[in-house]
Design a protein that fits this description.
The complex is a heterodimer of chains A (about 180) and B (about 240). With about 180 residues, chain A is mainly alpha-helical. Helix content of chain A is about 95%, strand content about 0%. Chain A has one domain. Chain A starts with a helix and ends with a helix. Helix content of chain B is about 70%, strand content about 5%. Chain B has 8 helices and 4 strands. The model of chain B has no long low-confidence stretch (mean pLDDT about 85). Classes of the chains: A mainly alpha (about 180), B mainly alpha (about 240).
Chain lengths: ~180, ~240
């Protein structure tokens, strides 16, 4: 302890060892410390703390929005896929409907044609029969007329009567 | 080098109260410079720092780094303002003496306050007393006294001596560096002022001023660094 005080005295003697200076230094330093803490370091560190928190918050928010965007893009992709599938389905349906309609039309046309054909055939048959009937009738009267003209000179009234009767009989049997 | 100090002995009629008025002046000047600079530099704090706010934040980060090197941040947070104030005060003090030395009459008025052993020892003693204070406050008096007798009670005298040597080395290292710088500067200035061939002395003077600036910065850093080391010895539980 003695040597320590000795050293202190020795060292301090270089600049002089005064309690007044010590007191001034100590007080000045403490005042400086308090003032700076209040006016400089305090606000400064507060601001740095605030910035740190702000940056952390921003990073968190960015991370969050990134996740959200990812989710949204995933959703959109899924929706797009679904829409595509739906469109595909609709096209297929339309195609099927078209094919069916085509077949229906063809079928209907064929039926119509068939019906018209049958009708025409029936008409033709009808006409033919009518024509035959008319022809038959005419042939009968004509032949009678011709026969009458031929026979008029050769056969008697009596013979004629007989002949007509026979003819009529024949015609009646023929019918 | 035969400048005198403007002494005021037996101030207010108290026999042991002596002042070196140059010291008093320079302490106040340094403190005011540091205070004005800091308040000015951190007057408009913004989220996006510009200009001097960047510098101040760099300083805070720098001292934070020193604290982090020696102890964990939870206990070291308290010492950040102390470290910052010490760093700036000592640096500005050192620089004041490097840039200018003012002599009025035969008295050396303008110099580094840190070129006076009384003042540096006051600072170092303040720091060491603070380490004891925080050692007791943060670790409890039981743990505090236990550090003196661990690992073996035989260490007790050495531990006690260590506290005083720490104070001495911390203060005298700063004082020695700055004082030596000022002595050499004064010699060089005297050489230049002598005229004639002495004017050549302006070249080593510029070199020495540059070196003194460097030394001044380094010593401020070392002082803060050692403060934190001593502090960590007292407040960290693993010691």
């Amino acid at each position: 302890m003695q040597s320590y005080v000795g050293l202190m005295t020795l060292s301090a003697s270089v600049g002089g060892f005064r309690f007044g200076d010590m007191a001034v230094q100590l007080i000045a330093f403490i005042i400086l410390l308090i003032l700076l803490k209040k006016f400089a370091w305090g606000p400064l560190m507060n601001m740095m703390q605030k910035r740190e928190e702000y940056v952390a918050g921003e990073i968190e928010a960015a991370e969050k929005s990134r996740l959200e965007a990812e989710q949204a893009s995933k959703d959109a992709a899924a929706e797009l896929l679904q829409v595509k599938q739906e469109a595909q389905k609709m096209i297929e349906n339309a195609k099927n409907a078209g094919v069916k309609q085509e077949q229906d039309i063809i079928e209907a046309a064929r039926k119509e044609a068939e019906r018209i054909k049958v009708q025409a055939q029936a008409d033709i048959q009808n006409e033919k029969e009518q024509a035959i009937q008319v022809l038959q009738a005419q042939v009968a009267s004509l032949s009678v007329l011709i026969a009458g003209k031929v026979i008029e000179k050769e056969i008697s009234e009596k013979d004629q009567e007989e002949l007509i009767n026979t003819f009529l009989k024949e015609v009646g049997e023929g019918r | 080098m035969n400048h005198e100090a403007p002494l005021l002995n037996d101030a207010f009629g108290i026999s042991w109260l002596d002042f070196n008025l140059a010291n008093v002046l320079m302490i106040i000047v340094s403190s005011v410079v540091v205070f004005v600079f800091c308040v000015w530099a951190s007057r408009k704090l913004q989220m996006k720092p510009t200009g001097f706010q960047n510098f101040m934040e760099w300083l805070v980060e720098f001292v934070k780094g020193i604290v982090n090197d020696t102890m964990d941040w939870k206990t070291g947070k308290v010492f950040l303002p102390l470290g910052l104030t010490l760093l700036l005060y000592i640096f500005v003090s050192n620089m004041l003496g490097v840039m200018t030395n003012g002599v009025v009459g035969h008295d050396l008025w303008w110099k580094s306050p840190t070129a006076d052993a009384t003042l540096t020892l006051t600072l170092s003693a303040t720091v060491i007393i603070l380490t004891h204070f925080y050692g007791i406050k943060l670790q409890g008096s039981k743990h505090y006294f236990k550090t003196f007798v661990s690992p073996v009670p035989l260490m007790l005298p050495f531990k006690i001596i260590e506290e005083f040597t720490n104070t001495l080395t911390l203060g005298l290292r700063l004082f020695g560096n700055i004082y030596a710088g000022e002595v050499l500067l004064t010699l060089l200035v005297g050489m230049v002022m002598a005229g004639g061939l002495g004017v050549v002395g302006i070249i080593p003077m510029v070199v020495w001023q540059a070196f003194s600036t460097f030394i001044g910065a380094i010593q401020a850093y070392v002082f803060v660094m050692l403060t934190m080391v001593y502090m960590s010895h007292k407040v960290s539980s693993d010691h």
